Amino acid sequence: MKWFFILSGLIACTGKPVRSSCPVKMSPSRVVVRFGDPFSVNCSSPSNQIQSMGWESPYGTGIGRQDGVSSVSLKIDSVTDWDLQPLCFINLLDNNQCAETLSVTVYKMPDSVSMSQPSQMGPMVEGEKYHMQCDIVNVAPVRNLSVSWHKGNKIIYTEAFDKTSPSPVNTSSVFTLTAQRSDNGTQIWCEAQLEFSPLVPNLHTILSKSHEVVVLYSPTFTKPENETLELRAGSKIILDCTARGNPMPVYSWHFPNPIQQTKKNEKENQHILASSIQFPGTYTCTASNTQGTKTKTFTVVEVTRNRTTLAALVGVFLCVAALLFIGGFFFVTPEGTFSFSKGSYLRGQPTSSGPV
Ligand SMILES: *[C@@H]1O[C@H](CO)[C@@H](O)[C@H](O)[C@H]1NC(C)=O
Ligand SMILES: *[C@@H]1O[C@H](CO)[C@@H](O)[C@H](O)[C@H]1NC(C)=O
Ligand SMILES: *[C@@H]1O[C@H](CO)[C@@H](O)[C@H](O)[C@H]1NC(C)=O
Ligand SMILES: *[C@@H]1O[C@H](CO)[C@@H](O)[C@H](O)[C@H]1NC(C)=O
Ligand SMILES: *[C@@H]1O[C@H](CO)[C@@H](O)[C@H](O)[C@H]1NC(C)=O
Prior knowledge:
Elements: H1 2-15, E1 25-27, E2 30-34, E3 39-44, E4 50-56, E5 66-67, E6 71-76, E7 87-92, E8 97-101, E9 103-107, E10 112-116, E11 124-125, E12 129-139, E13 145-151, E14 154-160, E15 169-178, E16 187-194, E17 206-207, E18 211-212, E19 215-221, E20 227-231, E21 238-240, E22 243-246, E23 250-254, H2 258-267, E24 272-274, E25 281-289, E26 292-302, H3 307-327, H4 332-352
Parallel strand pairs: 2-9, 11-19, 20-26
Antiparallel strand pairs: 1-3, 3-6, 4-5, 4-7, 7-8, 10-12, 12-15, 13-14, 13-16, 16-17, 16-18, 19-22, 21-24, 23-25, 25-26
GO molecular function, one term: integrin binding
Transmembrane segments: 310-332
Signal peptide: 1-20
């Protein structure tokens, strides 16, 4: 039956080349329906030359020829076939016959969407490549499936499938991730979606479980690799050896001076040293973890060029203090400030007096 109508349609077209298609209109013009759901379609013709019309469907759900009508509707209670191709046919008074196939897409949402990785999701190592797989079970039609990979709030990869099977298949998408330190702590998941146009309402996407990425990486200093610092009388020096790494780096220090070396033990595994630096020289800090060791050098130099300025400042303070003392105003406060500056200045003097 089906082939008969197609053949007659072709003959009709060859006989009258001007008419490129059958004078029928389908409403809706294409159908996207979930397996098991109902649908109905109207086929109508504007022609006034109709002898009969009907629907032909290979699964016996069609309705036969109806004489003297200008529309026929096909109603299917439950779609139970993946490849429905119903034909609306028309017989005209001049004995021409033609038919048109209705486009029906039968879909089924996946039973499951899951993500797997060969190394069973253990920690990753920076710079290494990891193949991650997203398995989609029992989905139809696969040519309308879109799989997207998400990392944090970004889509990092989207895959479409060009297989044409109308019935459900199992398929998978493979994404290769090159582990970066910035990936540590982010979530990765895949998402399956059926895409139709026009969009079918309430077609949800299906998400895999998300996986938290852990990336191991060697320590990197947050400040410049090496630093040069100036030791000034009365001011504090801060040696900042803070490094980022996974696992968390452990720190150790090396001091230039034997006296400070004895204090070293209490400084072990601190990332910042403050205050106690009193001697110029080269201080080193190492930050290490399972992925590597990095060394940072702090060169502490003593500042001597400001000596005259400082002396001048002290002189001014002395004068002010003297004036205030004479005037009898606020004796205690200026004296206190003065004593502090002087004390610090004098303490630095013995180590630096040589070259001057
Ligand atoms: C089909 O067309 C008939 C007549 O125009 C109308 O009564 C009916 O509601 C239509 N059915 C559909 C499913 O569009
Ligand atoms: C898809 O996978 C499921 C479960 O893994 C299995 O039961 C089913 O037979 C597979 N289907 C096809 C078409 O291979
Ligand atoms: C790496 O991620 C883990 C898990 O979220 C977190 O506990 C850890 O602090 C992170 N490490 C770094 C250095 O970002
Ligand atoms: C299904 O996907 C194909 C290929 O991307 C597309 O041509 C077709 O229009 C889609 N089907 C529907 C009903 O949108
Ligand atoms: C830091 O200093 C050390 C020793 O002085 C040197 O070997 C290293 O190359 C320096 N690193 C940088 C980044 O300058």
